[in-house]
Amino acid sequence: MSKKITQLVALVTYANVSLQRHDFDLEPYIAEYCYGIELVYRPAREIAGTTQIIAPDATKWYDYIIGQDAKRVKLRHQSSSSTELPDYITEAFTGGGSDWFIEVQFPEKSELYLHGWVPEGGTVQNPWKTPLVQLGSDLVPLEDLAPSCEESRNRLGEVLDRLIEFASQFEHSKHWVANFENSRKTLSEFEPTTSDEFIPAGIYPKQARQLIEAAFRSWVFGGMGSWTDMAFSGEHQDTYMSLTEQLYSTLCQALVSAVNSYP
Question: Which of 53, 79, 136, 152 is deepest in the core (most CB within 10 A)?
Answer without folding.
Answer: 152
